[in-house]
Design brief:
554 residues, alpha/beta, Alkaline Phosphatase, subunit A, Arylsulfatase, C-terminal domain, 2 domains, 10-stranded mixed sheet, 4-stranded antiparallel sheet, 13 helices, 20 strands, 28% helix, transmembrane, transmembrane helix, EC 3.1.6.1, calcium, hydrolase
Length: 554
């Protein structure tokens, strides 16, 4: 040993001199380095093995009052959702960022308020171009970087680029029932900039709402068959001959269960999965399968809610069968409140209130438009039978997922996302959010801070009374302020009594718009101009349309 050391020291002497102890140290390090690296890799694998699977189930047009665990007066049987809630945590003050489909989905996947995108009001259509900006980090792209398998199954409704036969891509104007019903799309070509382009390893589902053509299944970037017939699930359009709306919920449920079965083993070995599962139900067309028709004893919408409940039950059963239930975070929520298409009169006659105690419904700036059911179940980390009254927004998935896997969120991602992991674990004793911003179908703004809610518009901003374009709003106050602690139903507008609150909340909302973010960090640009007063001013200027003279001329 001494001979070897002496020769090693002599040969290295021109550059540096090593003492015998230091050389011994080098030799020992070299000897044990493989063991050290092995232990480090083993620790890393063990740490990744503890990362949970995440399944995010997003119901479509389902009210807060449609689940018995959330609404004691609920007349719909929801045993699986009740079990999910009793085994986890109910968030009683959770909100979608918008009261309609597309904008909420944008916020869920990007952690950015929808009104910062190019879509300032309304929704996309089945042939609309992509909405999520190129190179924007999303929940799936971030989780994929941390070793997750990522899948989206169900209703996309965030745009994708369909090639036209004559070249170029379809747009919002590509579907016109009379002049251009979507037959100029080349359905044989790959679809560009769909779910796979924003971080999903796999996609199976439909392009938009089930009442929007084209009526075809899509797998990754390919239409599953070429439309050859016209079908109408509310709107006429190109359809594959075998596509039937009633089959969609069972089909996407089966596909989700299949993915769980296929990736369960890998998840136990440090390759967890993220499944974003946006349902097509109970949105229109309201088509429960035969075994659910008439089950609620109320109407078809309530039957469809029961089928949604069964879908959740099938997902949970698959997780338990595979032995991965304990370390899987399952979140169930909805993209907005219940739609008038559900037939409120039929439900009211049976004493069922889908919006619970809240005013309004889908499309509205009122609570019924955006206060949504939100249940988080994760046996390994969330205590069963718990509640949280933390103000929560669906944009918070991004920061929460990042918190779970220890990812650093860059300044240009998740600008409006706050981690609710502390609430889930029961360690949050102060508000996690400063405020939350809501948006109606017409682009009206609202901001909520503590118990105060400011709405920068007269009327509902959506479809309920007083409705812009239908009811005369010119004599109503331009803004509304409600104290939700004493007026959860938003019946008494107290803006005149609290001008200081109006000023504070307006200033805060304007600062969020100007800074391009509502969380700490470097200011970011919005996509296009953001005018927080525009929709409200437009609504107030609308007069109630004069009734048309329906008398026939003699």
């Amino acid at each position: 040993m001494q001979t070897v050391i002496a020769r090693y020291q002599f040969e290295l002497k021109p550059r540096t001199t090593f003492s015998i102890p230091s050389v011994l140290s080098l030799i020992m390090t070299a000897a044990f380095l493989p063991l050290f690296l092995f232990s480090q890799n083993t620790a890393h694998a063990s740490e990744k093995a503890n990362d949970p699977n995440i399944i995010y189930i997003l119901a479509d047009d389902m009210g807060y009052g449609d689940i018995r665990a959330l609404n004691p007066e609920c007349k719909i049987a929801t045993p699986h959702l009740d079990q999910l809630a009793h085994g986890g945590m109910i968030f009683t003050d959770a909100h979608s960022s918008s009261s309609v489909c597309t904008p909420t989905r944008y916020g869920v996947l990007t952690g950015r308020y929808n009104w910062r995108s190019r879509l300032k009001s309304g929704v996309l259509w089945g042939l609309s171009r992509r909405l999520i900006e190129p190179d924007r980090e999303t929940v799936p792209s971030m989780l994929k970087e941390h070793g997750y398998y990522t899948a989206c199954v169900g209703k996309w409704h965030l745009g994708m680029d369909w090639s036209l036969k004559q070249g170029g891509f379809a747009t919002e104007q590509s579907y016109n029932k009379k002049t251009n019903p979507g037959w100029d799309v080349d359905y044989s070509k790959p679809i560009q900039n769909g779910p796979n382009s924003v971080g999903f390893d796999y996609f199976f589902g439909i392009s938009a709402s089930l009442d929007m053509p084209p009526y075809v299944y899509i797998e990754n970037d390919r239409s599953q068959g070429i439309p050859t017939v016209t079908k109408a699930f509310f709107r006429d359009g190109p359809a594959h001959k075998d596509f039937e709306a009633i089959d969609v919920l069972p089909r996407i449920t089966d596909k989700t269960v299949q993915i769980i079965d296929e990736h369960a083993a890998a998840s136990k070995e440090g390759k967890p999965f993220f499944i974003y599962f946006p349902l097509n139900a109970p949105h229109t067309p309201i088509l429960p399968t035969p075994e659910w028709q008439g089950k609620s004893g109320i109407n078809a919408y309530c039957d469809f809610v029961m089928q949604v409940d069964d879908t959740v039950g099938q997902v949970m059963q698959a997780l338990k069968k595979q032995g991965i239930h304990e370390n899987t975070l399952v979140i169930f929520t909805a993209d907005n409140g219940c739609s008038p298409a559900a037939n409120f009169k039929e439900m009211t006659d049976k004493d069922h209130q889908p919006s619970y105690q809240f005013r309004g419904h889908k499309a509205d700036i009122y609570e019924g438009g955006h206060r949504v059911p939100f249940i988080a179940n994760w046996p390994a980390r969330i205590k069963a039978g718990t509640h949280s009254d933390q103000l929560t927004c669906l944009t918070d998935l991004f920061a929460t997922a990042a918190d779970i896997v220890g990812a650093k969120v860059p300044d240009d991602a998740g600008e409006d996302s706050v981690s609710i992991l502390p609430a889930m674990e029961g360690t949050a004793h102060t508000p996690l959010r400063e405020a939350a911003v809501h948006h109606s179908i017409r682009g009206a703004f609202s901001i909520r801070k503590d118990h105060w809610k400011l709405e920068l518009c007269p009327g509902s901003g959506g479809w309920s009374f007083p409705k812009p374009g239908k009811d005369n709003l010119s004599e109503l106050p331009a803004i509304q302020l409600y104290d939700l602690n004493h007026d959860a139903g938003e019946q008494k507008n107290v803006q005149a009594e609290h001008p200081e609150v109006v000023k504070e909340l307006t200033t805060l909302l304007q600062s969020y718009a100007d800074r391009g973010r509502s969380t700490p960090g470097k200011p970011q640009p919005n996509t296009g101009e953001v005018d927080i007063f525009k929709a409200g001013k437009s609504a107030q200027s609308m007069k109630k349309p004069a009734k048309k003279n329906t008398k026939k001329k003699s």
